[in-house]
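P.,

For your records, the input lines for the assembly:
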Amino acid sequence: MTTTTTKTTPQTAEDFSSHPDFAAVTRSVASTGPRYRNEMGKFSIHRASTCISCGKCVETCKYGVHTKPAGYRQVIRPFDYRCIGPDCEKSGTYCIANCPTKSLTLQENPVYKTLGDYRWTPDLLSSTWHMAETGHKPPAYLESQVGNSGGGFDRLRFVFPDKIPSGLRREDIDTKLLLNKRKNDSRPKVTIDVPWYGGGMSFGSTNIRAQLAKVRAAQAWNTFSCTGEGGYPERFIPYKDHMITQVATGLFGVREETIQRARIVEFKYAQGAKPGLGGHLLGTKNTPAVAAMREAMVGTSLFSPFPFHSVYSIEDHKKHLDWIAHVNRTTLLSAKVSTPNDVEMVAVGSYCAGAHIVHLDGSYGGTGAAPNIAKKNIAMPIEYAISNVHQFLVAEGVRDEITLIVSGGIRSPWDIAKAIAMGADGIVIGTAELVALGCIRCGCCEGGRGCARGICTTDSELLELLTVEWCTQRLVNLHNAFREILVDIMYRLGVPSVSALRGRTDLLMHLDYDNEKVRT
Amino acid sequence: MPAKFHIHAQLTPPRIRPEGKLGIVDWREDCSSCKNCVKKGCVYGLYRDEQDTLHDEPGYLDYIYQCKGCLTCVQNCTKNILTRVVNPEYERLGDAYFTPDIVLTTWWQAETGGVPVSGCGYGGPFSGTGFDSMWTDMSEIVRPTRDGIHGREYINTGVDIGRKIGRLDFSGMELTSTPPKLVQSPMPIMFNVIPSQWDRGAVVSSVLNAAKKIGLFAIASPNQIAQASIDKHNHIVPFLNDTDLAGNKIVDNAPMVMLPDSETIKDKVAKLKKAKADRIVAVRLSAAPKSAVRVLELARHGIEVINLVFDDHGMEASAEKPRHMRDAVREVHGALVKEKVRDEVTLIVSGGIALPEHMAKAIICGADLITVDIPLVLAMDCRLCGECKRGEPCPVELENVEEKYATQRVINLMGSWHSQLLEMLGAMGIREARRLRGEVGRCMFFEDLERAAFGRIFGKRL
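Structure tokens returned:
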């Protein structure tokens, strides 16, 4: 029988508090190396057999490429993913030039060229791995600010002022985000410490260890993660204050108690990657544990139909929200929708129906399985939707009563800052977290045994590729790096808080426009 | 419930070893023979299977085709001697428009008949030219089919070909007008004339057979029809040149025939109509900047069906700034609507349809139907290497393709396209392919979105 638990996994509520997996997580950054023997970097270094193990390279390199652990006679194979490349030559720490036997050669890693795609370039993948390992900003030789998609965020740039306003200090910059902006609303004023939270990835699509790590890191950073639509495994209960319960169209795992324990309940109307199509978990990923959670038959494909069959109008939507509002008197309500032509009307409709958060998921967003034709063609990219919805909400006079959260192709702290400057309040990140855990975006998450790298899988053997501790620390590091970079951007822009950055399109320019309006 | 249109796909593995995108190669002669080889641990079992079957010609299993590129072996090798490379043969597939990715996905669809599904968000460019600068809409809550993916059988992809009159006339209680005959196609797609370089072996017969089996129409030259080893069937549209006009037997059976546009087209159509009034006569013309004018003329002459032909990359014929089908078809459709004759002609567009999304988008731009040709030969393993055009032997021996195999591959491809059209129609909340025609409200154009979202902030687009 396939099971998602192992001997060392806590089974009871008491286990949770005693097990190291579940010990309190802090925000402290700790170097957390990659989990594969040969991590990929931009460059590769080859040590020829003429090496005499003199150790000169170990002394020379300050990036930790060459190491000779205590008790070793020979220098071990180079950790070439840390190498900064030919630019090193100027720094005097260049192993190639300093090797007495000329045994070292440096070249661009041939695998690197085959990595990634237009949106997630090899440099973006690599810089995310760097952030997850070190917790700090990526090195300069990686292009970590934009991808290569030729539009949207990749053509937007910040215009930094020449002088930073005096008196602004990095440590004073406020990255908090208030999620309940409704006036005359009795529900809690939930605030998160960073302007983003984690996207929904369901039990069934994603390794539960990755899910646990996501919510643990979210707890450490006082933000949220989301159950996705696969039910609410008991192992999430210790983190209930930082877990959003998702109610999606299949209603898998939606129960009174899972609604009642959440501080935010999210209605998923549609998903950006497959708008208008509903969800689909292929039968091969539906293991006994998944089937039990979803109250379904093992091995059958599970569809979340589109749309909610109880919702055919904004009035129905209000009824829906009222239902949750009565089941849980203190929860905030979020409506996750994708980006059709009339996305502005949908957003205003959600506000009128009583939602605290409107979450727009753009068409280039992530997915565990979606028809390729839908991912590419259906609904608009998030960059357009942010601008349109923000301006429309302003014009309607309700902008300050609703929290606009956006997602779908937001990869880095630079994208986060741009999205906020375009008009979003906050962001949902998904793929970036998975990349931090070693995702290479090969796209094979959907069927068979699932992700070969153990991230999005329910296969009992592949689950073992991850540990909760490792994943948690990688994500804690990632959040730290994201925040550091975001603070740095805001400092250089002279903006003291995330709420002050919102809608500051005057700080942006678009490389394909004359930008006359911004300059004047 | 009446029987619904459904295309029965059958797994049809490629007859020759296909090219794949990624492969793993050893690149340093440095193997330590650790006997602990990571290849044994391949999550997909490819190395193991390969050892078992590689020499089993014509073996279909091939890790260059099947490697998913997960990098597990590359990253776990003790000596780091494995590397992942993009197969150079893959990069040579297709051309600038029919990209290697399109060739590969067409092969997969022809093999399985399934809808390509994958994980991860879209990784391609933000937008592009032509059809890549359009996004189709989705409907957040209001739906035509109340059952989501299970209600897809209620979506009708059928279209009519022929002239629809605007009104019925009566004299007293007597109906005095006769609605012209229409023919139905279960999908807004026709098979185009297979160009001469691919007209070899069983290629054309297979295309005609596939058309018959799934009820689509196939356009073919009289020569092709005469040579094809097929039973006579009424899904062939003979494409006649002038000399074929008089007393050709092939024409008699056909519910529809097609003629090239010419000065005397009105007389030729009249002659054919006189011989058999309920036979539909289509007129084909090459798309050019002034096409809209000519299409209007033809429509006023009472031509029922017009086939507007673009080049293989969907561009019109013009020396200066040729437009993509996206813009040219919108213009033609708009002109017909403005003249209030849109329903009196059926507009079929050809050229540059490489993917099912192109079919949906061309219809949104105003076409009633589209035709395909290149995807059909891709389904038979063609790589668009162009050797045939240069008179060289075909590397995949298209002339030896078996008819049964080729027919099924074409059927599978159309099954896949049909399912993908349903996905798009379902998401748009449109219940009939007929109603998609010219429905630009269910679509978003790049320029409009840029103007609305960025133009008002950043000014003029450069």
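Two observations worth noting. Chain B has two domains: 22-86, 148-450. The CA atoms of residues 247 and 365 of chain B lie 38 Å apart.

Regards
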